[in-house]
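Long-time lurker, first post. I've been practising inverse folding by hand and with some scripts of my own, and I keep getting stuck on stretches where the structure tokens seem ambiguous. Below is the full token string for one chain I'm working on. Before anyone asks, I'm not after the true native sequence, just a reasonable design that respects the backbone. If someone could post their per-position residues I'd love to compare against what I wrote down in my notebook.
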């Protein structure tokens, strides 16, 4: 117990005691207060240490009253556990609890009042109450005055909160400070302590009831007081009281239920003995024993009735008030315990009057409450004996349960699906066929736990084959094959009828946990595939065989790589040792079997392009350390079949799968590396020889000439070489020298087919990429480096010519190819070892750079706003998505050139112009380019933003002057201003980018006043200041005044701010100056004299602006020239975190610059 620290609480308690009602007697008052040990006890329980400590005053053993029994108890206590309080014992385990509770029971027999008050103090300590308990004896529960004074009030004057309530025969008053009512109490503490305390507190209540069940639990004193205490404090306004005492009450009811169950067992056994005695003959029957058994049965029934009465009081007095509590943790406790009560004591609690509470709370807004409801129902539906009592509940709440599979909380949805699996297993007629079809589609959902639960539902509903009568006479292997055949048939039927998805891998992943044995039965799957298809018979049709091949490949992938799939989350990413061993065993089994069977499958299905494309992926998952890998004959057979397939098919799916498979089989360390490498080289050599013969005839003249059959043959062979070249290094066959003549100007001008040009561009770009990637190995002399640069130059020129080709695919491929080559070349220049030969510098020509920029702007940013971006509620078709994907690839390739420094940063200005118009489609790419270029060169990136805004402003100005109407390529003034706001938001750290922001303002001021003259009323570009004002919020306070001073130097001597033409200047000035400086700004603008800043003291400024920094030193310029000069930044100074602030010298005298050259500022000359 933790005592109150102030004397006010004691006076308050005494006043309450003196004002007790007529039904109370002051002679029986007992004041229970703690000492300083209360805090220590609570801290010890948190640290879970066991130390010697004395009992509180009311629990100390009195020698006069204890007698000999007290001495024995003390000896036993010293033997087992040291003297601790009830609150401390929770940290010592169940055995220590039993010892201390036994001692408490023994003390209760000698002094009920003190022991009961100690138990009450224990419960209040567990709620985190830091206050004082005052108890008074009450002779009767009746009396209006007694019930009228049962209050809970706040005393704001004394800073106390107190609650008075009746726990017969006590009137208890709990007083505690107001500031102690915080959210941190034992059950709600952060970290694992709250879970530990929840467990230990629940264990203490159960042990207390278990130790008291044969003695004092039926004395009509203890339980009455405890239940009154729990009932009163669980109804308190204090959250800690409600939470702690509701948990104690529900755990008490659960423990009482255990006592009632043991009594029921005793009654049943006694009734059996009574029946046995009654069946005996009159001679053998004992009347005394019958009477004794009858008396025992009656006593046990009376005790059970008393226990059930206690349970009913707790349920009606506490549960019915708290199951709808505002605190979700309390509602969760109620639902969790209610499910336990229904399962353990179904004769009393499992009926519709109790089930309705679970049904109602399934609509709770808190996910944890709904989860507890689902877990409770799983325990009920999992017991077949309880199902008849759930019929009405099932019919009433079935729709709600099914709808909860779409719950926003994933765990609730998963447990709901598991509940429906139990319902479908135990009750066949509950779920309709429509419900089944709705639930089975969850095997394709994006959350793997929910998909796995739906897979269990599918497996138990459709794929669990039962043994038939005809299988009794069959062998075990035949029975297994028949069951597998039936399950496969059902799985294929489900997949074809659902038509919900086209990816079998998600279906296999959903069934993997429950149906892994079926999916990993590769011998049966392959034997079914090797059978002849018979649409009329009992075999599989061609469509079913195609789906079965997909299932086979997906199961092989799942066994080799695990459940990680793109687009599906929630899978386990790290495997334990047992799972890794199981994965290796599965890979070994599939390698040993499929290495033998796969050539047969390829031979049988060689006619089908789709099936072959799937089957040829299987060797990628083989385990190279298997014994079958050493068998070169089987590997040669597999490679030969793969070569035969490549001779028949040239589809991209087959070629890409074959190229990756050869790459996997040719990996270093594999047993069949030499065999497969030789077969691959032979295959590539045959393609090269064939292509040389074809090109020799087609390029015999000045141009390109080939008939349709030869043209198709050239395209097919080139496509095969290109696909293999993307995975394998084919540089030794000199593909560049063979294919480059097809890109000559004569061949392109004389009508070379677009299909050939596209394939040739891809082949040559891959050749150069391999050459650049292996520069450290290939470039052993300067001649080879020069030859490599020559190839780069030739390819760039050819790609430049192809950018104006009539075919869009050729133009796009030329653009992507040259961008990839230039990016790879830049990377090699930065990583090559200077001690050896490396790639020589190659810079794209200015014409090529302009052509790339023009191509990116004209082919990426096309169409109006509504053409390129999907409207709300409109689903774009596949063609639009594919077109958008191609355009994003083009933009990304161009942006990489700017980010890596291949092209100048200023070229990004053209791209930034489209940021607002195409933000939905390309905003992420443009924003990433902005951040990357800013990391490389902050000033250069800021200049690009300025250039972008100024060009947009000039285009708008020219369009307005012409007056020809709105041009689709010209943006409005509002759009330009919004673009400037987006640019300003990208400057996050004001100190880090202060120099950039000042440069933007300086350039904007010069641009706005560059064509000003005394004859005109206002400069023509003055409205640009409105756009520039979007960057004013990114200036530091001192920088705003510096920029304002620089603005004053460009402002004319006589300026009337009341004129409409000068409104942008007024708006810009207002954005630079604070509210307190507005009057000063107006006086400066309307006066004939310019502000004189020379007399301001730098030291005074520094004191006034402590903590601010000046990023630049501004020198005056001639505003009539209108020329923009780049700032020269001193490399010897950097912007410190907090440099000393100083005033800016606007005159820019050399003396002031020399005097202040050593302070930590950055000097920028304008």
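-- Answer (accepted) --
I ran through it position by position. Result:
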């Amino acid at each position: 117990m933790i005592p109150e620290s102030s004397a006010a609480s004691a006076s308050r308690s005494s006043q309450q005691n003196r004002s007790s009602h007529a039904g109370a007697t002051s002679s029986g008052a007992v004041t229970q207060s703690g000492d300083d040990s209360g805090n220590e006890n609570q801290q010890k329980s948190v640290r879970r240490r066991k130390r010697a400590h004395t009992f509180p005053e009311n629990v100390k053993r009195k020698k006069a009253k204890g007698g000999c029994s007290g001495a024995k108890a003390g000896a036993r206590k010293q033997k087992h556990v040291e003297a601790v309080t009830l609150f401390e014992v929770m940290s010592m385990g169940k055995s220590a609890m039993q010892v201390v509770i036994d001692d408490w029971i023994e003390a209760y027999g000698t002094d009920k009042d003190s022991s009961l008050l100690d138990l009450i103090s224990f419960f209040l300590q567990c709620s985190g109450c830091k206050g004082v308990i005052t108890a008074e004896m009450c002779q009767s529960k009746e009396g209006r005055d007694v019930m009228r004074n049962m209050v809970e009030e706040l005393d704001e004057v004394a800073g106390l909160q107190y609650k008075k309530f009746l726990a017969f025969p006590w009137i208890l008053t709990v007083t505690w400070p107001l500031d102690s009512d915080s959210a941190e109490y034992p059950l709600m503490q952060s970290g694992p302590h709250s879970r530990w305390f929840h467990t230990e507190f629940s264990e203490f209540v159960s042990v207390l009831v278990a130790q008291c069940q044969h003695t004092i639990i039926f004395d009509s004193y203890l339980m009455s007081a405890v239940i009154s205490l729990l009932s009163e404090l669980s109804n308190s306004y204090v959250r800690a009281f409600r939470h702690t005492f509701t948990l104690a009450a529900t755990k008490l009811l659960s423990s009482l239920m255990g006592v009632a169950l043991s009594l029921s067992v005793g009654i049943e056994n006694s009734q059996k003995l009574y029946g046995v005695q009654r069946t005996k003959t009159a001679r053998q029957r004992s009347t005394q024993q019958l009477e004794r058994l009858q008396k025992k049965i009656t006593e046990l029934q009376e005790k059970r009735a008393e226990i059930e009465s206690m349970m009913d009081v707790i349920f009606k007095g506490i549960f019915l008030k708290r199951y709808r509590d505002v605190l979700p943790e309390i509602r969760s406790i109620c639902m969790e315990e209610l499910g336990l009560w229904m399962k353990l004591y179904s004769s009393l609690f499992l009926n519709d009057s109790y089930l309705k509470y679970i049904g109602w709370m399934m609509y709770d807004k808190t996910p944890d409450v709904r989860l507890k409801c689902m877990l409770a129902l799983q325990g009920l539906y999992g017991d077949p004996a309880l199902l008849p009592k759930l019929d009405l509940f099932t019919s009433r709440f079935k729709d709600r349960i099914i709808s909860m599979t779409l719950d926003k909380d994933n765990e609730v949805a998963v447990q709901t699906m598991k509940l429906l699996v139990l319902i479908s297993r135990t009750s066949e007629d509950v779920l309709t066929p429509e419900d089944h079809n709705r639930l089975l589609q969850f095997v394709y959902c994006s959350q793997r736990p929910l998909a796995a639960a739906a897979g269990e539902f599918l497996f138990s509903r459709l794929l669990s084959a039962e043994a038939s009568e005809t299988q009794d006479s069959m062998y075990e292997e035949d029975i297994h094959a028949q069951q597998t055949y039936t399950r496969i048939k059902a799985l294929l039927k489900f997949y074809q009828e659902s038509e919900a998805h086209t990816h079998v891998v998600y279906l296999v992943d959903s069934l993997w946990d429950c149906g892994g044995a079926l999916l990993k039965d590769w011998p049966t799957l392959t034997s079914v595939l090797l059978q002849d298809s018979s649409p009329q018979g009992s075999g599989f049709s061609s469509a079913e065989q195609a789906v079965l091949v997909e299932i086979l490949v997906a199961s092989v992938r799942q066994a080799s790589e695990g459940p990680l799939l793109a687009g599906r989350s929630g899978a386990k990413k790290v495997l334990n040792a047992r799972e890794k061993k199981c994965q290796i065993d599965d890979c070994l089994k599939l390698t040993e079997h499929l290495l033998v069977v796969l050539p047969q499958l390829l031979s049988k299905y060689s006619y089908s392009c789709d099936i072959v494309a799937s089957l040829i992926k299987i060797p990628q998952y083989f385990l190279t350390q298997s014994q079958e890998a050493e068998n070169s004959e089987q590997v040669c057979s597999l490679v030969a079949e793969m070569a035969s397939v490549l001779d028949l098919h040239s589809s991209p799916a087959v070629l890409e799968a074959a190229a990756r498979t050869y790459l996997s089989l040719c990996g270093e360390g594999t047993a069949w590396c030499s065999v497969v490498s030789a077969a691959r080289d032979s295959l590539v050599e045959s393609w090269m020889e064939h292509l040389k013969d074809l090109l020799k005839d087609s390029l015999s003249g000045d141009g390109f000439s080939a008939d349709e059959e030869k043209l198709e043959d050239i395209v097919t062979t080139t496509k095969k070489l290109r696909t293999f070249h993307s995975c394998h290094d084919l540089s030794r066959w000199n593909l560049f020298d063979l294919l480059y003549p097809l890109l000559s100007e004569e061949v392109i001008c004389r009508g070379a087919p677009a299909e050939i040009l596209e394939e040739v561009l891809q082949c040559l770009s891959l050749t150069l990429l391999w050459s650049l990637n292996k520069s450290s190995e290939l470039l052993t002399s300067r001649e080879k480096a020069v030859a490599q640069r020559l190839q780069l130059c030739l390819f760039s020129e050819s790609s430049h010519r192809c950018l104006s080709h009539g075919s869009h695919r050729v133009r796009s491929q030329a653009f992507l190819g040259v961008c990839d080559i230039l990016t790879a070349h830049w990377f090699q220049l930065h990583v090559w070892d200077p001690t050896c030969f490396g790639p020589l510098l190659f810079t794209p020509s200015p014409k090529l750079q302009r052509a790339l920029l023009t191509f990116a702007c004209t082919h990426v940013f096309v169409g109006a706003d509504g053409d390129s971006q999907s409207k709300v509620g409109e689903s774009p078709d596949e063609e639009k998505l594919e077109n958008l994907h191609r355009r994003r690839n083009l933009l990304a390739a161009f942006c990489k050139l700017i980010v890596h420094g291949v092209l100048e940063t200023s070229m990004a200005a053209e791209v930034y112009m489209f940021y607002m118009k195409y933000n939905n489609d390309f905003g992420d790419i443009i924003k990433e380019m902005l951040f990357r270029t800013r990391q490389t060169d902050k000033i250069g990136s800021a200049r690009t933003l300025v250039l972008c805004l100024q060009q947009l402003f000039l285009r708008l100005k020219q369009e307005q002057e012409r007056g020809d109407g709105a041009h689709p390529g010209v943006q409005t003034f509002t759009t330009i201003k919004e673009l400037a706001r987006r640019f300003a938001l990208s400057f996050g750290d004001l100190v880090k980018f202060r120099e950039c922001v000042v440069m933007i303002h300086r350039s904007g001021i010069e641009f706005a006043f560059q064509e000003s003259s005394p004859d005109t009323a206002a400069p023509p570009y003055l409205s640009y200041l409105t756009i520039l004002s979007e960057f004013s919020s990114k200036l530091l306070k001192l920088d705003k005044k510096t920029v304002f001073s620089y603005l004053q130097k460009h402002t004319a001597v006589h300026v009337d701010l009341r004129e409409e033409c000068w409104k942008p200047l007024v708006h810009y000035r207002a954005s630079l100056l604070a509210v307190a400086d507005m009057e000063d700004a107006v006086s400066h603008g309307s006066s004939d004299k310019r502000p004189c800043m020379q007399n301001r003291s730098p030291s005074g400024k520094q004191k006034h602006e402590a903590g601010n920094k000046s990023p630049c030193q501004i020198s005056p310029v001639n505003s009539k020239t209108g020329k923009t000069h780049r700032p020269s930044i001193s490399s010897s100074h950097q912007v410190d975190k907090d440099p000393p602030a100083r005033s800016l010298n606007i005159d820019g005298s050399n003396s002031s610059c020399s005097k202040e050259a050593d302070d930590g500022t950055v000097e920028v000359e304008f």
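A couple of notes from the structure itself: Residues 673-861 form a domain with the Leucine-rich Repeat Variant fold (CATH 1.25.10). The mean pLDDT is 78. Happy to go over any region you disagree with.
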